[in-house]
Amino acid sequence: MADREWYFEDFGVGQVTTTMGRTVTEADIVNFVTFGGIFEELFLNAHYARESGLFKNRVAPGLLALVLGEGLYILSGHTHHGRALLGFDEVRLTAPVLAGDTIHEEVTVIEARPSQSRPGHGVLTLAHRVVNHEGVEVMHYRSARLIEGRPRP
Asked: Full-prediction pTM beyond 0.85?
């Protein structure tokens, strides 16, 4: 949980946040693919995944790793004064996420600038690395967010 309120002025270029970890379960994978309609046998059939898949285990869709990574960053409290997610760029899947893996995010501020269109707000560009329990990067991406500035008295 957040240790304090985070406003735009609290972010600086180079600042790094490491989130808590989260274990990806078989239920996470099945629920995500069912909800999203991603009915690939590799995601739904554990026997097929073990016998015919590249990783000999049920693999998580890349989008699940992205969603879980974003959720972990939100738990840090740094986005509670966020007003808009402006986009994702440079999304790359660099290693598989398997059932039983524990992942966390390392998030670095790469740009922090005042908003031109929304006075009292700023735009953050963040570099995200999703890392598994063995220290292997499984995904990286960038996000841009509109964050509320600190209220003026």
From this structure: yes
Q: Does domain 8-23+63-148 have CATH number 3.10.129.10?
A: yes
List pLDDT tens digits, range 133-143: 999 999 999 99
Listed by start position, the domains of the chain span: 8-23+63-148
Distance (Å, whole) CA 32 – CA 46: 15
Cβ-in-10-Å burial (0-12, 13-18, 19+) of 147 comes to buried
> What would the pLDDT profile of 77-112 be if each residue is shown by its tens digit?
999 999 999 999 999 999 999 999 999 999 999 999
Residue 134 dihedral angles phi and psi, to the nearest 5°: -95, 5
